[in-house]
From TrEMBL:
Protein name as catalogued: Thioesterase family protein
Matching CDD domains: 4HBT
Pfam families, alphabetized: 4HBT_2
Length: 144
């Protein structure tokens, strides 16, 4: 699989006063897609609870290139841009396309938290390593 793709459907509440997609909606779509992808890779919320691990973000940034309007057909593509071999640190990129036009790019940098100890998970559970290792990579992927 070269990428995870999802066609987005917008609601009236996703718009801002200028009638285009509000800035925080982009982040909501990215977060939802990451959870869906992890579940597809076997890392469901139930598994995370059992393993006492959960993803945390250190940075989340969006670069807005073109407006997105309510009726636009947008495909979001999600790939791994950077990752440590033990999957303890990673960067994921979400690209929003209208046909072939890149409209926005979200980049998130994250890690895994031990939900019992409330600190970074060490070592990263094997199920997390296995799931993230199969994640599609960007063309310029960097092994940290």
């Amino acid at each position: 699989m070269a990428t995870f793709s999802k066609q987005l459907s917008f609601r009236w509440s996703d718009l801002d006063p200028n009638f285009h997609l509000r800035h925080s909606a982009y982040y909501d779509f990215g977060a939802q897609h990451r959870v869906e992808i992890l579940a597809q890779l076997g890392l469901t919320l139930k598994v995370m609870q059992k393993e006492h691990v959960g993803p945390i973000l250190f940075r989340e940034e969006c670069v807005f290139r073109k407006e997105i309007n309510l009726s636009d057909e947008i495909i979001m593509q999600t790939k791994m841009a950077k990752m440590k071999a033990d999957a303890s640190r990673w960067s994921i990129v979400h690209e929003f396309y209208r046909e072939e036009v890149l409209c926005a790019v979200i980049t998130v940098d994250g890690a895994w938290m031990d939900t019992k100890l409330r600190k970074l998970a060490s070592p990263t559970p094997q199920i997390v390593v296995d799931a993230l290792s199969t994640f599609p990579k960007t063309a310029d992927f960097i092994a940290l």
